[in-house]
From TrEMBL:
Annotated Probable zinc-binding domain residues: 82-130
Pfam families in UniProt: zf_Tbcl (PF13451)
UniProt xrefs under InterPro entries: Zn-bnd_dom_prob (IPR025306)
Protein name: Zinc-ribbon domain containing protein
Length: 149
C-alpha cells in the first residue's frame, strides 16, 4: 500500500512531466513556425530574384536622341516597366509594355521623352490615313505636271 505522501510525490512528478511535455510541444511549435517563416522568406527571396532577373534593363548606349535637359525616369531607374495608359483617340485602356518600350527607345531610336499615346489599332489607322493623304497629294502633283506638259 502506498502512503499518502508517496502518492502526493507521484502526482507531483506526473504533473512536472506533463508541464515538461507541454513546454517541449510549445518549443517544437516555435521551431516549426520559425522553419515555416524561413521557408516563406526563401520563397519570397526567390520570387524577388526571379522578378529582378526578368527586368528589361536600359542600355544607355542604344538610346536615341535626347534634345532636352536631363533624362526621363526610366533611364534613372535603369529598367523598363509596363505603363498603363488610355488611347488618346478611342480611349481604350492599354499597356505600353516594357518590351515595346525597349524596342522603341533602343531599336527604333525614338526620342527618350516620347511616350505611347495611341493604341495599336488607332496607330495603324493613323498611318493608313497619312499614307493615303501622301498618295493623293503625289497623284495630284503628277496630274498637274502632265496637264502642264
Ligand atoms: Zn485607340
Amino acid at each position: 500500500m502506498k502512503s499518502g505522501k508517496q502518492r502526493r510525490t507521484e502526482i507531483q512528478v506526473q504533473r512536472a512531466e506533463q508541464r515538461d511535455d507541454a513546454a517541449d510541444a510549445a518549443a517544437k511549435l516555435r521551431l516549426d513556425e520559425r522553419a515555416r517563416n524561413a521557408k516563406l522568406a526563401n520563397g519570397e527571396k526567390a520570387r524577388e530574384l526571379a522578378l529582378v532577373s526578368k527586368r528589361l534593363h536600359v542600355n544607355p548606349a542604344n538610346l536615341g536622341p535626347n534634345v532636352s535637359w536631363g533624362w526621363p525616369e526610366f533611364v534613372h531607374r535603369g529598367y523598363y516597366v509596363d505603363q498603363p495608359f488610355s488611347c488618346r483617340a478611342c480611349g481604350k485602356e492599354q499597356v505600353w509594355s516594357a518590351t515595346q518600350q525597349r524596342w522603341w527607345f533602343e531599336s527604333a531610336k525614338g526620342d527618350v521623352w516620347t511616350v505611347a499615346v495611341h493604341c495599336r489599332t488607332c496607330r495603324i489607322k493613323e498611318r493608313e490615313r497619312k499614307n493615303l493623304a501622301r498618295r493623293t497629294h503625289l497623284e495630284g502633283v503628277a496630274r498637274k505636271r502632265s496637264d502642264g506638259a
